[in-house]
Every structure is written in C-alpha cells, then in structure tokens.
Amino acid sequence: MTAETSAEAGSQKSPVREPVLQAKGLVKRYGMVTAIASGDLELYPGEILAVIGDNGAGKTSLIKALCGAIIPDSGEILLDGKQVHFKNPMDARRAGIETVYQSLAVAPGLDIADNLFLGREVRKPGVLGSVFRMLDRKRMKDEASRHMSELGIATLQNIGQAVESLSGGQRQGVAVARSAAFGSKVMILDEPTAALGVKESNRVLQLIRDVRDRGLPVILISHNMPHVFDIADRIHIQRLGRRAAVITPQSHTMSDAVAIMTGATEAPPPVA
Amino acid sequence: MANDTSSGGGTATVPDPGATGFDERRSESPLQRIQHVLHANPILGPLAVLVLAIIVFSIVSGRFLSAANLGLVLAQVTVIAVLALGQTLIILTAGIDLSAGAIAVFSSILMANLATDLGVPGALALIIGLVLGTAMGAINGLLVTRLGLPPFIVTLGTLSIFFSLNSVVSRSETVRGSDMPSIMTWTGTTFSLGGFRITYGSIIMLLLFAVFWYALSNTAWGKHVYATGDDIEAARLAGIRTGHVLFSVYTVAGLLYAIGAWVLMGRLASASPNVGVEYNLDSITAVVLGGTSLFGGRGLVLGTLVGALIVGVFRNGLQLGGVDVVWQGCAIGLLVLVAVSIDQWIRKVRA
Questions:
Q1: Domain coverage including residue A214
Q2: CATH code, A81
Q3: What pTM was computed for the model?
Q4: Which residue has the higher pLDDT, B24 or B50?
Q5: What DSSP assignment string belongs to A42-94?
Q6: Domain boundaries, chain B
Q7: Which end of chain B is more exposed for a tag (fewer CB within 10 A), N or C?
Q8: For the complex shown, is ipTM > 0.90?
Q9: Contact criterion met (CB < 8 Å) for A110 and B1
Q10: How many angstroms separate the CA of residue A211 from the nearest CA in chain B?
Q11: A135-174: pLDDT as tens digits
C-alpha cells in the first residue's frame, strides 16, 4: 500500500502523521442514486489537497459532507482525530472548517467589511452593544482591512466598497479572506478559478498558496488540471463514488490523472 | 499557463479584464454616470422627485406651502408611512405583503371592539390589539418560512382571511371615536410647532422611522435582512439563519401595522371596517417610489418616508391645483411605473 514514496510527505519527520481532517467510509444515497459509495479522504497539516473527478464522481457530495452542507447516511468524519457530526454548515464553521463556495456566498449589495463579518458581526462593547445591539463598524472595517492586506489583496483601498462593484477575482479574494480570517483548521475551496480569467486565476492560486503557507491546510476542488498540478501537494481522485487514487504532481502526469479519473487506467495504490 | 477551460465543468467563463474594460468605457457617458450615482445613492432619485413636486405645486397654488396645508399633508401620509415601513422590511427581503392594510384595519377593529363591546380598559385594548396584529404578521411569516410558500400567495390568502374576519368581528359597523377611551384616538390630537399643527401620530411615525433606520443600518439583524434579500442562498451559506430573519421581518411588520391601526383610529376619529382596502397597495407604492427594489436587498427606510411624502404631496397638490380627484390615481400610477423602470435600469449597473 505504500509503494508511492514520492509524496510531499516523504520529508516529514514523524512517521505517524495525524490527518487534520479525515473521512472514513462515508455513504450518501438519494433514493436509488448513490452519491458517495465509500467516501474516504485524508487531509494532512500544511498541505493543499486537490480533489478531482469527473462530473457525478461524487466529489461535490463528499466535500459537502465535510463542510456540513449534507449529512452522510453512514461513515465517520474525524477532525484532529475526534469524531464530529455536522448538522449544518454553521456547525462545521464553528469547528474551524471554512468553505469558499463556488457561488462565493457573498452579499453583493453589502460592502467588503460587512461581507467579511457576515453572520459573525462584532458589536460595540458596553451598553451600546448589549442593549442597542450596535455594530462596531470601525473595528470590523479595521480588521477587514488587516485581513485583506495580510493576504496581499492590496488593490482594494476602500473597504466600504460594495462587493458587487468588484471584479470576479476580487470577489474571490473577499471570500477567501473571510475563510482565512475565521478558519482555524481547514479551508475548502470549490472551483475557485472556474469563472476567472488567466491573470485573476493566477492571483487566486497564489492566494491559496499563501493561505497554506500561513498554516491552514486546504482542500481544493477543481476541474482545471493545470491549476491542480500547479498548486496541489497531493491529488485525490474520486471516481464512481469512491477514492480511485491519491497521486502527487510529481508521481503522475496530467494525462495519468485523467486516465485514472475516467477509468482508462488501473488506479495506482494510494499515497498515504 | 494555459488558459484551460474546465473539462466538462459547463461553467460559462467570462474573461474579466474584458468586462472591466467594457464597464470603464461605458461609464464615460453622462447617462452612465447618473446611473452610477443613483446606484450608489438610491435616495437621490426620490428626493429629487419630492423637491421638484413641492416646487411645482407651490408655483401652481399659493396655498400649498402654507403651514396649515403642510401639516395636513403630513397627517394624511402618516398612516401610509407607518404601513409602508413594515412593507419596506418585507420588500427588502424580496417579499411582498398584500395584507398590510388588512392587518391594520382588522387590528383597529379588534382594539375598538375590545374597548367598547367588552369594556377592556383603553390601554389594555391597545396592547392586546398590538399583540394580535403582531400575531397576524407572524402567521404570514410562518407560512412563508415553514411552508416555503411565495409571499405574494401567502399574503393574498391572509388578505382575504383578515378582511373577512374583520367583517365578522365588526358586524360591518363603524365604532365612533367618541365611544372609545380617549387614548385610542390620542394619535389624532395635535400640538402646535412653529405654526405647524402636528399630530402625535406623526411623531410616532417619525420615531418608528428613526428606530428602523438604526436597526437596519447599525445592527447585525439589519445586515442579515439585506443579505437575505440580496441572495438568500448566499446568506444561508454565510451562516445566516435566513428562516429566522424572514420570520422576524414578517412579525415585526405585523407589529408596525398594528401601531398603524392606532394611528389610523386617531386620524379617522373612529374604527371603520370599510377603510383600508387601498392601504395595501398604497403602502407598496410608497416603498417603490422611495427607491426600494422589489427584487430585494436594496433600499432605505428613509426612501420610504420620502415615497410616502411624494404620494401625499401629489394627491394634495393636484387637488389644490384643481385637478379632478379621478386623475390622481393616474398620476400616482405613472409615478410608480417610472420608479420601477428606473430601478430596473439602475440595477443593470451590476451586469
């Protein structure tokens, strides 16, 4: 089972690495349709794990189970080795798993600061906050600016700008900054570059690397092979509701990955 | 790096630099600039209409700007403004409330009959009426959130139900103000302020606008109302309990309509089951004229106040100008169509 030694993990000192997030034997059925036949996934500290698979391979369902958007019928999810049960996305967020959805889940009419703190607003201290529920807009704006500049999203001078006035890449930046600001364990990104041009895609990919380098492991779902091979430390290939293989950009080529994805090639044994 | 399009993702890829460039080129035109300004400051359009209307009507009729007349306009718009405030909250969530007037009128009948038929003390009758009005709003909210029915259908149904119950309870009889405890028509009493005769009802109305301006712009609840109306799925994914937000909005609107009922009894010096049919649509008119988008997520309560004033000023000014009453509806209707067209146009800025 451990034939692949070219994994990024080769240099890891500790022989027993504990995954941050682990899924074991997840099953999800919708009536007669099986979305996840056996969902297994491990995410290790400090890595970008790309999840690829053809349409209908169950990667979206697998990810939704991890971020609380669907509840699996059976199987278990372990966060830092402890079993967790997410009833909704909020549960997952409280546990430290932040998701950047393909739709971004931003409110276009609200400004950047409001969006960063959407659902987690900060109230003023004292009576103003407790009785009059007044928001601490200055603090929210300041912290939003800090988070944005930490990630090098410096093009946004005005944190009070409505999100709808931003470009696609900038909106993605806002969504990533929000997850990076609040995610303590894992960040999941669903097709972050699907709607972006070349330049903006590259900027977002760099943003994802920055997030990883700052210590937050990342799960990236993408159809875009060049992007996946550019950025991923390991690549999880989902096929027919199961994990077909785990490879690395060094161990296999893009066409190998596509072959495994489509079933043209026998899957190699997984990289631990 | 190759600009690889997704291998079967089916996502329409719009190259962003192109779109941005397109936008910048277009913003050169003055019309486009107006569009951007209106988009950034949605209150400007309604305010311009109001100021323009006041100028025109003051030229047409010398009496228009008199203190007595302006006081009258304010008194006339007070009830509609209170109802429109509740309506604004609902329209901000991309909903609509056709039962606003029905809840207000039914609440006023309940308050009046409690006090007169059952001999409940005035203040208590008011409080019970406020609770019942709130409950009626909550019923709308439950139907919208629990059953997931479209707000239009829900409130169309409750509109009929509340009006019908209203006829049953009132036996289609008007309760005269002189038969009620004085507190119930207190909202219609006036005080003098620099020559203006202002009703206490108008003061209540202005206070309510101040409260909800604050709640919408300075509390998390307000942000959640906007986010829910803007894109409910995005709001849900961002962790907002959109069901709770919607339910709270319909419930609070019910309370506002019931307060409107109190103001209404003061204005009419009675509680009549036969008024208020037009209040449902008038409240929507005021919201729309105030620049709040029927698509949700955009709008200001201050705009609704301006919208209600526009309706009041037009009705009053046309009357003073000697225009037949039958044409007033026509003028208001045209205004609504223009307002909605402008809203559509402004929203295109996003594309």
A1: 8-96+183-262
A2: 3.40.50.300
A3: 0.85
A4: B50
A5: EE-TT-EEEEEE-TTSSHHHHHHHHTTSS--SEEEEEETTEEE--SSHHHHHH
A6: 42-346
A7: C
A8: no
A9: no
A10: 20
A11: 998 999 888 888 888 777 755 567 888 888 888 888 888 8
Chain A residues within an 8 Å CB radius of B214 = 132
Superfamily of domain B42-346, CATH level 4: ABC transporter involved in vitamin B12 uptake, BtuC (1.10.3470.10)
Smallest Cα–Cα separation from B105: which of B74, B133, B75? Answer: B133
pLDDT digits (tens, 9 = 90+) for A190-229: 998 888 888 888 888 998 999 999 899 999 999 899 999 9
**Phi, psi dihedrals of residue A237, rounded to the nearest 5°:** -105, 120
Q: What is the CA radius of gyration of chain B?
A: 22
DSSP states of A168-234 as a string?
A: HHHHHHHHHHHHHHH-SSEEEEESTTTT--HHHHHHHHHHHHHHHHTT--EEEE-S-HHHHHHH-SE
Domain count, chain A: 1
Q: Measured between alpha carbons, how far is B77 from B312 in angstroms, rounded to an integer? A: 6
Q: Which two tokens stand for residue B250?
A: 């319909």
Band (B23; pLDDT cuts 50, 70, 90): very low
Q: How far apart are CA B227 and CA B208, in angstroms?
A: 22
Token pair for residue B71?
A: 């006081």
Provide the pLDDT confidence category of residue B288 given band limits of 50, 70 and 90: very high
Q: B175: burial class by Cβ within 10 Å (0-12, 13-18, 19+)? A: buried
Inter-chain CB proximity A197 and B17 less than 8 Å? yes
Parallel/antiparallel/unpaired status of strands A74-79 and A21-30: antiparallel
What span, in angstroms and rounded, lies between the C-alpha atoms of A134 and A126?
10
Residue type, B149: L
